[in-house]
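ping. complex inputs:
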Amino acid sequence: MDDKKVRVRYAPSPTGFLHIGNAQSALFNYLFARHFNGTMVLRIEDTDTKRNVKDGEASQRENLHWLGIDWDEGPNKPNPKYAPYRQSERNKQGIYHKYIQELLDKGLAYKDYSTEEELAEMRERQRANNEAPHYDGRWYGKSEEEQKAAEAKGLKPTIRFHFPKNHDYEWDDIARGHVSFNSDNLGGDFIIEKSDGMPTYNFAVVVDDHSMDITHVLRGADHISNTPKQIAIYEALGWEHPTFCHIPLIFNPKTRKKLSKRDKDTLQFISEYKKHGYLHEAIFNFIAFLGWSPVGEREIYSKDELIKVYDPNRMSKAPAYFDQKKLDWMNAQYIKSMSVDELTDRTMELVKEGETEEAQRLQSIPEDQLKDLIKKTIHVHQRDVNKLLEVIEYVWDYYNVLNAHFNYDLIKDNEDFANSDVLAVLTGLKEKLENGADDYNQAIKEVGKATGIKGRGLYFPLNLAFTGSTSAPQIYEIMDIYSRDTDIELLKRMIDALQA
RNA sequence: GACCCGUUAGUCAAGUGGUUAAGACACCAGCCUUUCACGCUGGUAUCGUGGGUUCAAAUCCCGCACGGGUCACCA
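pong. complex structure:
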């Protein structure tokens, strides 16, 4: 790509947990780094002290790890040349302040003593006049006396970057092509240091990306309009900016807007997918196809294959709508291709973690029995289940089958089935079981032959007897999940109910 | 309101001037199966719209419409 060694970064702010959008951004940076044999950096952008959440960073790391995304440098893997990796720590070291001072000295930045109320009022007035909200530069070029006077009132200044007039900021975006903004349309001089002494995002990223030798910045398209501001800083400091790549946003198909943490109808967080029993391989694969696609028709790719075929020039521009059904399909594909033993282990793990009610209630089952039950259940349901949580639900149903209440009226009131036929099937099978038949499949077939009942007439009653539902997978395999006594008991119950 | 950006089927999408406009999800139909599911086969688009340019346009240009992103002492 470049003669320089590729260095990319994923830089979350720990104000929330890893959601789909974060994951997408992390994933493309990861693919980029691995494809070009570069370095992946994890940087924590925690300059918003008010909004940081306690476990935000830990959650980000944990879920990234689960997804199969790792990094070469970060808070836990510091490279002395670039550490530290948290902006709060970098700020303490004066990294940002040094450059703020430089801009101040060059007259490219200035102090602003406006209060938040004044600024809010200004914006409100502009809105009322149908103007674009912007900072009007009221503190630009003020004298030292005026600053001192404000200081005497106890006001703490912010520091703003001063835009040159009518200056174009442009760049060639890997995903978007050539993009250009004029300095007059950027909302006026913007804050680079808050009154609490913390740098703002648009300033800190520039300093960090530069001082960490980041060569390529891959981030969400919502950052496009931040980019000219950042380029302005690069120029002011005499630095070269990295290559940008703005990844298409992920949209909620319901709201037709950027996926928001507040959208309740879509699972937002990677941790939710994990606890519902989505496989990390499937999530990785799926997210990689949100905003990008390889040449050809294939859609199922392992992580290593994706690293190999990843081509940043194939990033799309249009936003991607999040399609839950397609994810479910993809997850099902992965489930079908995985061994029963592997799936059993993963399901056991889900139960142990107990992140859902369904998983928790299985914890009361002795481990050996549980494992056996899970294995048998997967054997039956591997072909029709989308996620492991469904397996967990089935396991519970099968475990509790004798306590469950089945609605036999489903067949009693159904005109398609003669009561006498149903009874013939049930009693026929019951007798076979009592006489020691072990091949359940064979036994069912024999009952069919003996009674002359076939198809739905044969299986519908059995499905109902053993699962309480009229459609079920291979019924002889489900019979095998239960003990023979349970099987007989279930048949007997239904017979009694129909005769009553 | 201003500035940027996007627009191929319900969804993800391939496609870079000449294709029968790939493929996948979902949906529908059929086949397989003594049920269900899996699987298999088939079906569904005048490429937002109006104008250009060209022998030829989904592909290039312009207008319009629609959609989105951003305009914070959030990142």
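The radius of gyration of chain A is 31 Å.
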